Predict the structure.
Amino acid sequence: MQRATLALRVARTLVDRARKPSRAERIIGGMLTACSIADVTATAFTDAFKGGR
């Protein structure tokens, strides 16, 4: 999941540098950012619960 997210983020960065993103691309980018934040948060919670037990 994280590797795919990273690859998409790199691709999006290259597209952003080439030209201004369209509205759809900004929405997709926002969704990807939300997914990666959720992924990191879930990982942090999982690690915290494992450490607590």
